[in-house]
Amino acid sequence: MSAKHMFLKPGFVRAPLQNGIGRYVCQLQRIVLKFCKSNGASRGMRDFIEQDLVDFAKVNPGVVVYLKPRRHRGPVVVAEYLNGDRVWMSVHNKTHAEITKWIEVLRTQQGNNASTRLRKYQYTDHPSIQGPWTPFTHKLPELNTAELPNPAFGANNRLPMSATEQLRLMFEAQKLGEKSDDLKTAE
Amino acid sequence: MSAAKRVQQWATFARSWHIFDCKWQDPYESANIIKKYLMGLHKPIYHPMNDCGDVVVAINSRDIALRGDEWRTRAYFHHTGYPGGASWTLAWELHNKDPTMIIKKAVYRAMKGNLQRRHTMQRLFIYPGENVPEDVLQNVTNQIRQIRLVPTRLDQIPEEVTKTYPKVMDYPEDYVLK
Amino acid sequence: MALIRAGLQRLANVFSGAQAGVLSRFATHLAPIESKSVPQTTKDVIAECNNLIEKNASRNFAIVHLLGKQWRVTDGDLLVIEGFWPPTIGDKIKLDKVLLAGTKDFSLIGRPLVQPGLVEVIATVISKGLSHTRTHFKKKRRKQYMRINFQRAPQTILRINSVEIASKINEAPKNVF
Fold first, then answer.
1. B29, B32, B98: which is closest to B65 by C-alpha?
2. Cα distance between residue B39 and residue B26, in whole Å
3. Which of A19, C71, C96, C168 lies in disulfide reach of A15, CB 3.0 to 4.6 Å?
4. Which DSSP string corresponds to C109-165?
5. For the segment A100-156, what is each residue's pLDDT rounded down to a tens digit?
6. Residue B152: closest CA among chain C residues belongs to which residue?
7. Contact B149 A149 (CB under 8 A)
8. Of residues B165, A161, A166, A173, the one with CA closest to residue C14
9. Which one of B44, B137, B166 has the shortest CB-CB distance to A133?
10. Where does residue B172 fall: left (phi above 0), alpha (psi -120 to 50 degrees), or beta otherwise?
11. CATH superfamily ID and name for B15-68+94-164
12. B-chain residues within 8 Å CB-CB of A132?
């Protein structure tokens, strides 16, 4: 338990060397597996080396794999990345399955992710394409010349029509119909 | 920063001035709308740490409308801090003393009580009538829409209009109007 | 006020009604100008947009829906997606749920998605790792209650390779799914 990550370096999302724009380059360059041949803490590591390491090296020809047996020391994985990051991880008493998973994480990440707290989860070189917002975006052009306060701009224009108003309009329409009939007959 | 960028920055973060007509409006409903403009909540660039609030000029605060008999029942509490220093002022008394006070308190209470609230309130101008100083009025570029329609009183409608207004029925001749 | 307005409106109506009555013989000449112009405008706008798409005049952007979040993407963007997501490093994927696409001059708004196959957003997965360690610390004072949890969420970094408006507007939909 510690407050270490309260003082984590904050950072922004970046990809080294425009990775992924043209082609994709695996960022893991070198992985060193340090273990002891006799100690029980390295048991999982030894299983991994016996069963999966050759396949791992075959599948990832771009990754240099080193094995470093050493006596009476705990098992450790050290991964080095294209951007210069070095990740040291103790795999003391980890099982074969756990080590497989952790090595997969080390292989697929692009550097030492744990060392920075991301402040934004998106990065763009073009924050706006149709132009940034200003207070006058999508404003009525009539407001430029209008003299305010003006009830035409201040009154609520989203109220439903009242029943009285509806009746009145019906009445007007009826009256107009009579009148236009009159006009037609006059013609 | 290039000149064009600087202008862009200035345009996006410029404070605009809005006018709001309080005539016949419920101050507590209007406060929720005025608050949004004062705090900048109506802008797509809003962020709590971004100083993007606008200025609001509220006019006709003398003509606000309270619901029901709230003029008589709503009390504003104040305590001087001394024993026996509590006082309750009814809404109509407060409104008679200062016609801008009810809307001011309504907006103040509509906002969350944080350190920013008093600074945000500085951007609210309230005028009891329609007389707004010229230097304030010439900054105004937008009007905030009211919530309710302002009703027209019958004695303010010209007589000929009332006479020609369509009638549903006529009173019978022997009907006694009370 | 409403009454005065109503009165004025009625007067105006009477005049316009009278005009229609007087000019009824010309009505056939007068009416079509207005009724024709609207669809013509729509056609012109769509033609102009298609023209712009063909010329590829400006940078495109799109709003895509991805794992419950909406992202505004354009060419070369980086996105960080949190949570379990199967695609692995080096995978090229097409983001199909496009809610809106646009260029400098026009926007295509989906209801809720734009026509499938109209907009193509291609992305590459460039990294799959874990986030920094997040501490979840809870404590209640004077209640002998304290919990602490540490958590690292899986993070996938995506590079947007291209946002393209692949076909013309109002073209028959291709069967892309």
1. B29
2. 20
3. A19
4. E-SSSPPTTTEEEEEEEEEEEE-PPEEEEEEETTTTEEEEEEE--EEEEEEEEEEEE
5. 999 999 999 999 988 899 999 999 999 999 999 999 999 999 999 999 899 999 999
6. C1
7. no
8. A173
9. B44
10. beta
11. Ribosomal protein L13 (3.90.1180.10)
12. 8, 12
Report pLDDT digits (tens) over B34-65. 999 999 999 999 999 999 999 999 999 999 99
3-state secondary structure chain A: CCCHHHHCEEECCCCHHHCCCCCCCCCEEEEEEEECCCCHHHHHHHHHHHHCHHHHHHHCCCCEEEEEECCCCCCEEEEEECCCCEEEEECCCCCHHHHHHHHHHHHHCCCCHHHEEECCCEECCCCCCCCCCCCCCCCCCHHHHCCCCCHHHHCCCCCCCCHHHHHHHHHHHHHHHHHHHHHHHHC
Rounded to two decimals, the pTM is 0.77
Q: How near does any CA of chain A get to the CA of B114, in Å?
A: 25
| Interface membership of A168 toward B (CB under 8 Å) | yes
Nearest to C89 by CA among A26, A13, A59: A26
Question: Given C9, C102, C135, which is nearest A5 (Cβ)?
Answer: C135
Nearest in space to C98 (alpha carbons), one of C114, C84, C86, C76: C114
- Please tell me the distance in Å from B161's CA to the nearest CA on chain C: 7
Tokens 């048991």, located at residue:
A43
- Which of B14, B20, B166 has its CB closest to that of A168? B166
- The architecture that CATH gives domain A26-113 is 3-Layer(aba) Sandwich (3.40)
Is B161 within 8 Å of C1 when comparing Cβ atoms? no
CA distances from B128 to A146, B22, B61 (A): 23, 9, 5
CB A156 to CB B146 under 8 A? yes
Q: How far apart are CA A75 and CA A71, in angstroms?
A: 10
Of A113, A124, A129, the CB nearest to C130: A113
Query: A118 and chain C: CB distance < 8 Å anywhere?
Result: yes
CA C44 to chain A, closest CA, distance in angstroms equals: 21
Quick check: bond before C112 cis, omega within 30?
Answer: yes
